Amino acid sequence: MNFLEEDIQSGMVAIVGPPNAGKSTLMNHLLGQKISIVSQKPQTTRNRILGVVNGDKYQIVFLDTPGLHKARQPLNREMVRIAMDSLNEVDAILYMIDVSLPLPPKVEKEKQQEFVEQMKGVVAPVILILNKVDLLEKEKLLPMMQRYHDLYPFHGVLPLSALTGEGTEPVVEELLILLPKGPRYFPEDIPTDASERFLVAEIVREKLFILTGQEIPYSSAVTIESFKEDKKKQMTTIHATIVLERKSQKGIVIGKGGKKLKSIGIAARKDIEKLLGQKVLLKLWVKVRKNWATDEQFLKELGF
Ligand SMILES: Nc1nc2c(ncn2[C@@H]2O[C@H](COP(=O)(O)OP(=O)(O)OP(=O)(O)O)[C@@H](O)[C@H]2O)c(=O)[nH]1
Ligand SMILES: [Mg+2]
Questions:
Q1: Do the domain assignments include residue 237?
Q2: Higher confidence at residue 22 or residue 4?
Q3: Is residue 188 part of a domain?
Q4: Residue 259 has what pLDDT?
Q5: How many domains, the chain?
Q6: How many A from CA of 62 to the centre of ligand 2?
Q7: How far apart are CA 301 and CA 73, in angstroms?
Q8: Is 40 a pocket residue for ligand 1 (Cβ < 6 Å)?
Q9: Pair 171, 201 in one domain
């Protein structure tokens, strides 16, 4: 080991919490780049997304996870399992909740009890993140912090806004109190372990979450059929398939005269070009695979 690396702290940190709390937004903010997809709809993140943050004397490997919820379908159960498993694989946990919506005391109590259930047997220290304080009346914050403080032996309670960045500096500071000494797990120029193919499929899925409504985002998956870089032309040609559960959904995703699919493709291509740093030709297909979300073989192909 390089002697300069002797004093390095490094460790893994899971970001967990209910769907839509802002977990992916926070990870992207801490990374300073967009790795994890974000939308206004719950259950956007389906896999464990790894993001590496490097400082002069530290490396923090964040695990963004799917939202914890009461899951019935096999896909959702997998999502929750991934999030719950991460709790036992890490050196510290950021448990994040959205505090922008006032909850009736009874509902808040129920959610707190769920939290205590989820933390049973967890040994890693937990920092509670109260997110979206940009939307919260300031005088509500202190009593809320107190109510959570009494709930669990948190290492700390941090109110912040993952969206504006307000209050996020102490996150890394607090984590550095908790993380062990150790070498960097990842080279400093590698922000994630996810493949470009996976990230591209995620970008297309994000546009489906943003641009389609009803059940479509939850009935769709995205697979990459081919990914070819032309080094001379500095251009990548990507063929991706949007997989839907039912025939009736195909028309909705394609839209009148192909308009919807076109807007999904344009929005996705822009982000993919940013990711790959070159021109992209993106071809999208729409396919029906009945009940893919309960098809174990297909779920495996999606990385579950
Ligand atoms: N106003 C405000 N909005 C936020 C903040 N953080 C996240 N959001 C928004 O909340 C929504 C959900 O954010 P995500 O980062 O996708 O939430 P998530 O916890 O990863 O959600 P899942 O992956 O579905 O579990 C998006 O519309 C974000 O822009 C915040 O601090 N303030
Ligand atoms: Mg997410």
A1: yes
A2: 22
A3: no
A4: 97
A5: 2
A6: 13
A7: 17
A8: yes
A9: no
Q: What is the span of the domain harbouring residue 200?
A: 196-301
Compute the distance between CA of residue 189 and CA of residue 31 in angstroms, rounded to an integer.
Answer: 12
Q: What is the pLDDT of residue 24?
A: 98
Tens of pLDDT, residues 233-255: 999 999 999 999 999 999 999 99
Q: Are residues 200 and 279 in the same domain?
A: yes
The residue with greater pLDDT, 7 or 278, is 278
The angle that helices 196-211 and 259-276 make with each other, rounded to 10 degrees, is 140
Reported as a pLDDT band with limits 50, 70 and 90, residue 27 is very high
Taking the CA of residue 18 as reference, the ligand 1 atom at the shortest distance is 25
Query: pTM for the complete prediction?
Result: 0.96
SS3 77: helix
Task: Tell me, yes or no, whether 265 and 163 share the same domain.
Answer: no
Show Cβ contacts of residue 257 under 8 Å, excluding neighbours closer than 6 positions: none
Note whether residue 255 is domain-resident: yes
What atom in ligand 1 is closest to the CA of residue 66?
25
Give residue 174 CA to ligand 1 midpoint distance, Å. 22
180, 151 Cβ separation under 8 angstroms: no
> Residue 3's pLDDT is what?
46
Given a contact cutoff of 8 angstroms between Cβ atoms, the answer to whether 162 and 26 are in contact is yes
- Spatial distance between the Cα atoms of 243 and 237, rounded to a whole number of angstroms: 19
The answer to whether residues 159 and 41 belong to one domain is: yes
- Quick one: average pLDDT of 243-268? 97
Could you tell me how far CA 86 lies from the centroid of its own chain?
Answer: 13
Distance (Å, rounded) from C-alpha 180 to C-alpha 287? 47
